[in-house]
């Protein structure tokens, strides 16, 4: 259970300005005629280059705003590091990468806070705005909708393989490019094509985030495993025993509400649970609007995969 789930159980704020409280990808608050959307995210290093890591952190942090259908506007940096181990040169490169990526997203970095920490951590609190008619939420997926994924899976496994020196860093290029990609276009297309629910696929993997959507919407999500896109060699490394701890934890948490085909291999289960950094969006879209989605996505040159459907149910994920 993560912090948002605990807050969703305990949070008792009755302020009428709260449009979306804890439990979704981001919170939404109405101030007069403006809907503010806000989120925070912090991660530990997944690549060695500070500039690249800073940029990935920024892309990862703004992702929740896009997942809610919003436009990110400002950012506050959060940095934890051991000042004796990392000097100004490293921190400046980290921030330069972050600022460049935030600028690409149209976001202004307006401040931040650092603390002494034995484990390096970096992230952002992001604020933005969203139109009431364009809010995308976890709940809302309806039977008869199709499920669309906008990025390949596998960043957790591949970055772990590099850390364990089982894969050359030079082979991580496609994963890095994926993590650097903003979900801005995916969010725009989801809104314009009439999506009824959406989330970004991050630390809980496709399996965990799909289950969150199923539970929130009171439906079952049926995912065709053969249609799920993976980065090259992901399943190879899983079979070699390279599995992030987060993948195993997610699988243990989800498995009681997930139906796998008979004989489905554990390696394939773990691939679906692989924790993603700056992953793509999982979108529920009325099937009749799929043609509109395809035209918009093709026009923008955006990759996407139709991976399943939404059916009547009670909050499960069914893998076929």
Write the topology of this structure.
Elements: H1 3-10, E1 18-20, E2 27-31, E3 34-43, H2 50-67, E4 71-81, H3 88-104, E5 108-116, E6 121-129, E7 145-149, H4 155-163, H5 173-180, H6 184-193, E8 197-200, H7 205-217, E9 219-223, H8 234-239, H9 245-254, E10 258-259, H10 266-273, E11 281-286, H11 290-300, E12 305-312, E13 317-319
Number of domains: 2
Secondary-structure-based class equals: alpha+beta
> What percent of residues are in strands?
25-35%
Q: Biggest sheet, open or closed, and with what strands and sense?
A: 7 strands, mixed
So what's the overall shape? Answer: globular
CATH topology (fold) name of the largest domain: Phosphoribosyl-aminoimidazole Synthetase, Chain A, domain 2
Figure out the total of helices.
11
What distance lies between the first and last C-alpha atoms, to the nearest angstrom? 26 Å
| The CATH C-level class name of the largest domain | Alpha Beta
CATH architecture of the largest domain: Alpha-Beta Complex
CATH superfamily of the largest domain: PurM-like C-terminal domain
Low-confidence stretches: none
Summarize the structure.
Helices cover 37% and strands 25% of the residues. By secondary structure, the protein is α+β, with helices and mostly antiparallel strands.
Characteristic key phrases:
11 helices; 2 domains; Phosphoribosyl-aminoimidazole Synthetase, Chain A, domain 2; single chain; 7-stranded mixed sheet; alpha+beta; 13 strands; 320 residues; 6-stranded mixed sheet
């Amino acid at each position: 259970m993560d912090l948002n789930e605990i807050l969703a159980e305990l949070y008792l704020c009755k302020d009428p300005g709260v449009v979306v409280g804890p439990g979704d990808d981001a919170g939404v608050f109405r101030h007069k005629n403006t809907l503010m959307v806000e989120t925070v995210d912090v991660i530990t290093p997944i690549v060695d280059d500070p500039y690249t890591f800073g940029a990935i952190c920024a892309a990862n942090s703004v992702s929740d705003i896009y997942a809610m259908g919003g436009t990110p506007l400002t950012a506050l940096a959060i940095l934890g590091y051991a000042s004796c181990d990392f000097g100004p040169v490293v921190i400046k490169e980290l921030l330069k990468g972050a600022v460049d990526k935030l600028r690409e997203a149209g976001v202004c970095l307006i401040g931040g806070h650092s603390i002494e920490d034995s484990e390096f951590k970096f992230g952002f609190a992001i604020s933005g705005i969203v139109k009431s008619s364009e809010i995308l939420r976890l709940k809302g997926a309806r039977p008869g909708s199709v499920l669309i994924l906008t990025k390949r899976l596998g960043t957790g496994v591949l970055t772990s393989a590099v850390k364990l020196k089982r894969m050359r860093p030079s082979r991580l290029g496609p994963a890095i490019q994926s993590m650097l990609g903003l979900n801005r276009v995916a969010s725009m297309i989801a809104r314009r094509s009439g999506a009824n629910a959406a989330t970004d696929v991050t630390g809980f993997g496709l399996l965990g985030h799909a289950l969150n959507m199923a539970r929130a919407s009171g439906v079952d999500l049926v995912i065709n495993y053969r249609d799920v896109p993976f980065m090259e060699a992901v399943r190879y490394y899983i079979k070699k025993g390279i599995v992030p701890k987060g993948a195993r934890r997610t699988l243990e948490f989800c498995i009681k509400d997930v139906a796998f085909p008979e004989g489905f291999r554990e390696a394939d289960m773990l691939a679906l649970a692989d924790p993603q950094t700056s992953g793509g969006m999982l979108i529920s879209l009325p099937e009749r609007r799929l043609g509109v989605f395809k035209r918009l996505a093709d026009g923008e040159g955006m990759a996407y995969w139709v991976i399943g459907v939404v059916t009547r149910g009670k909050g499960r994920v069914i893998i076929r």
